[in-house]
């Protein structure tokens, strides 16, 4: 039938091992795994000989149609998820961020509305929390119990940052809800002071950005929130760990018993930040994000080793794209350059190139850090993040030897440049199956706008705190 598909002769890679099996898919679900599966006539079959079959990528860090720093991201829910599928990512978890005077429930409804009719793959949401009061407290509970939200992001930098007292209280609440706290860890007070000083000295270009927020400013915040996390017994997920010092600090806190997870980004693994200070405004502003891509050229290898060792668990994209014109808002004042970079389409290829092709990661490690670990951490496993009977049929038939050169000329994003421009990557998706439908077919993209479904992320068993 039209709703069935057979994939033959591939090497199936899961985070916990490799097997040689055929995969039979029906109505969007993996129905059977086995050797030489016999299926009725008239069913499409794909020969995956010589290819790896991977669980579709799970990117738990995207900002689509996001209003930020006086403008709105170039990638909307259509272009963002189209780019995702083209690169082998079949699930995203996006950040909802309410407007001033909007309740969290209103924000949730408005984001569902924005995404509906545009998304090309399944999507879930995290909610950003920028304050603390009874209304927010009650709405967080409703989001968990009724709307499939199990993760909340708090900022320690930017004007809307929370102080330690607020973080402590919110983490207690999140712990009681059985949810997960996500933290943007940078010391906002120090950044503001440094920014003022640099601008006064006449350092107004994009090079001022990293100078205002060096590694220890990131690492200090990581340490502080890990301490709070441990005091209140609330698990924490540090988003976008960008530096060696922050990653090491996180690992040290884990050793001391903090329940913390770490996410790094394709940008941090793929780009050698030592070149950034020498670039012109357009290129330096194009790569500008927070925390910054670090100038230390040993950073990407260090972070990749940490992924291998399990000191970091996830690679996200933090896709938050602004066009060249939008980046110019910050011409003459680096603190006004809209922060954010692309990565939704290229995350899988960049991690394969820098991780697997170099021999640091095995294919199973690759699946763990691009799909399975995020699915587990955000509680959508084994529906997502693995190839097993009963799981959603989100798969990538991956050609490890074919290469492509990343370019804005060919990418599916709406944004008008690509931070990985010119990078040659081994590892190309030949087929991408989204909910049982072939959406990349021998390299050709064939998506249906609006076909993605909202994915509820259930809370974990509520944690009962005992003194
Ligand atoms: O620079 C960044 N990371 N922009 C997106 C917003 C955030 O902090 O994740
Ligand atoms: Zn952030
Ligand atoms: Zn240039
Ligand atoms: Zn982000």
TrEMBL record:
Keyword Metal-binding in record: yes
Could you say which EC number(s) this protein's record lists?
Answer: 3.5.2.2
Q: How does it assemble?
A: Homotetramer.
Modification after translation, per record: Carbamylation allows a single lysine to coordinate two divalent metal cations.
A GO molecular function annotation here is: dihydropyrimidinase activity
What's the name of the protein?
dihydropyrimidinase
Pfam families, alphabetized: Amidohydro_1
Q: Which cofactor does it need?
A: Zn(2+)
- Catalysed reaction, written as an equation: 5,6-dihydrouracil + H2O = 3-(carbamoylamino)propanoate + H(+)
Q: Where is the Amidohydrolase-related domain?
A: 52-438
């Amino acid at each position: 039938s039209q709703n069935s598909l057979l994939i033959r002769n591939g090497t199936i890679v899961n985070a916990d091992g490799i097997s040689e099996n055929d995969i039979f898919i029906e109505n969007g679900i993996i129905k059977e795994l086995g050797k030489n599966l016999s299926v009725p006539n008239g069913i499409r079959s794909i020969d995956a000989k010589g290819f790896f079959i991977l669980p579709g990528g799970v990117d738990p860090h995207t900002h689509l149609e996001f209003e930020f720093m006086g403008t709105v991201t170039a990638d909307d829910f259509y272009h963002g998820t189209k780019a995702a599928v083209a690169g082998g990512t079949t699930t995203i978890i996006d950040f909802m961020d309410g407007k001033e005077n909007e309740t969290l429930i209103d924000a949730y409804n408005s984001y569902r509305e924005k995404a509906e009719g545009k998304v090309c793959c399944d999507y879930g949401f995290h909610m950003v929390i920028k304050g603390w009061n009874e209304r927010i407290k009650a709405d967080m509970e409703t989001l968990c119990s009724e709307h499939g939200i199990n993760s909340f992001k708090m900022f320690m930098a930017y004007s809307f940052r929370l102080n330690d007292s607020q973080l402590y209280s919110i983490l207690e609440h999140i712990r009681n809800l059985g949810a997960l706290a996500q933290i943007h860890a940078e010391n906002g007070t120090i950044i503001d002071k440094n920014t003022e000083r640099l601008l006064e000295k006449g350092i107004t270009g994009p090079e001022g950005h990293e100078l205002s927020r060096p590694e220890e400013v990131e690492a200090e915040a990581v340490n502080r929130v890990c301490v709070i996390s441990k005091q209140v017994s609330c698990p924490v997920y540090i988003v976008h760990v960008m530096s060696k010092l922050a990653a090491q600090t996180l690992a040290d806190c884990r050793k001391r018993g903090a329940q913390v997870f770490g996410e790094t980004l394709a940008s941090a693994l793929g780009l050698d930040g030592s070149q950034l200070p020498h670039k012109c405004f357009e290129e330096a502003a194009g790569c500008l994000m927070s925390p910054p891509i670090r100038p230390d050229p040993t950073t990407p290898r260090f972070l990749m080793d940490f992924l291998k060792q399990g000191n970091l668990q996830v690679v996200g994209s933090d896709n938050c794209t602004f066009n060249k014109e939008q980046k110019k808002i910050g011409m003459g004042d680096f603190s006004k350059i809209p922060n954010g970079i692309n990565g939704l389409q290229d995350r899988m290829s960049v991690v394969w190139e820098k991780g697997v092709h170099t021999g640091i990661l095995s294919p199973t490690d690759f699946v763990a850090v691009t799909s399975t670990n995020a699915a587990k951490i955000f509680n959508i496993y084994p529906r997502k993040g693995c190839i097993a009977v009963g799981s959603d049929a989100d798969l990538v038939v991956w050609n490890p030897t074919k290469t492509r050169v990343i370019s804005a000329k060919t990418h599916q994003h709406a944004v008008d440049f690509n931070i990985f421009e010119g990078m040659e990557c081994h590892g190309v998706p030949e087929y991408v199956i989204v909910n049982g439908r072939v959406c990349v077919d021998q390299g050709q993209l064939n998506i249906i706008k609006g076909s993605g479904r909202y994915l509820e992320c259930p809370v974990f068993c509520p944690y009962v705190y005992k003194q």
